[in-house]
Amino acid sequence: MKFRYLFLFIFLFIESANAQFALQDVFPNLLLFSSPTDAIIMPDGSNRILVLEQRGGLWIFDPQSPTERRLFWDGKNVVSQMGGEDGLLGCAFHPNFATNHYVFLSYTVGSNPWNSHIVRYECSVGKPDTIIPSSALDILTIAQPAGLYNHKGGCLQFGPDGFLYASFGDGGGGGDPFGNGQNRSVLLGKILRLDIDHQADGNNYAIPASNPFAANTQGLKKEIYSYGMRNTWRFSFDRTTGTLWAGDVGQNVYEEIDTIVNGGNYGWNIMEGFHFYNGTALDTAGLKLPIWEYSHTNGNNAIIGGYVYRGNAVASLIGKYIYCDEGTGRVWALTIGNEPVKNQLLIDHSNSSPVITSFMEDQNKEIYAVSYGGKIYKLISTSSVDSKEMFADFSLRAQRNFFDELHSQTEIHYSLPQSEHILISIVDITGREIQRCVEADKEKGQHSIQFNSRSLVNGMYFIKLTTNSGTLVQKISVMK
Fold this sequence. Notes:
Neuraminidase, Immunoglobulin-like, 2 domains, ten-stranded mixed beta sheet
């Protein structure tokens, strides 16, 4: 399959700033946590929050009395203390926690080289409830490359199927120097799926029969669910649809969002986002390209994957994937489905925003952000009227999107929510401008221009409308 045909699913995207949202410091009197990496809700109906600290502290507190916190597990003498991207990285409670009291932690151990571990613990039943240190059962151990302090992944989530999903980065170093992302005989650069309710082949887990390489005899790792991941720091399941969403941290230029499927190859290090990194068009057959990417412009540098919003407090966000950038603190909402893909900028205070390391959902499906500075914030609407439709006055549509010898001309219609400076251009699949159609100041309302494709060679292109309100893109094809 040629590279250009992998872009057929991209029809339209929208990025638009909006000032109706904020991250609210909802626990201002709570002592600061030390370099928190994640947070999770206690699955006992209490809505108590557990916060993971990078150096091994696992704290619990009650939002109803948010001035007190208690140490749920002290792992400072267990997890590695080297800095970088090691430490206590992930936590997940067993779906049957009410009866078995199992919790799973993902952390690194040792000091250059070190190992990544998934460990099962049992929690005490009485009050106060804590993790029982002596109950530790090592589920999985992965050796990490020596001298490399980054790309450890570490996210843990139970899927709707009851299996445990775990992410591990490519092992670190620029450009995946060991080729782990595409190497299916190693577990680095992957999302894994484990059956932790059974044991087989000398392991404290079994392989789900539907894992893509469960039956292989060629030495491919049977634990693999998806591969070609650079560093999937955070992933989550949509509570309504069960879709697995992942934010995969990029190399130097692009961050990406993927919806993960069984056996999918997400391209690293052949691709970075939609772009070639260490590959050519001949290498792209069968790859699963992102549903969205964004670049390292304006200070962006690392995606923090979040959740599809399924709460009730902010109606306009229902069904949208909430994520942010670690470098700038910008928070977006991404919408996919039968409608065109839309990316909405919710919060942009990049010079003063907290450094977000993770998101969490509470038992009411509201979304919170965890900051590396030690605070927990709640995503709220600041508008008294929470509008469900924010893009009606901003649109782009070409009457024709396929051009040949007999049909080379069309009208491009667009509408503006306000008077502003606009640029309409034709770009190729790498984003390079091929033709500038119009650049001018335009009034609010409906507009159109004439477009002729005769100067374009055969291939895939995009009509790109750029304004202060955002960017719109529509795919076109030329085949003469």
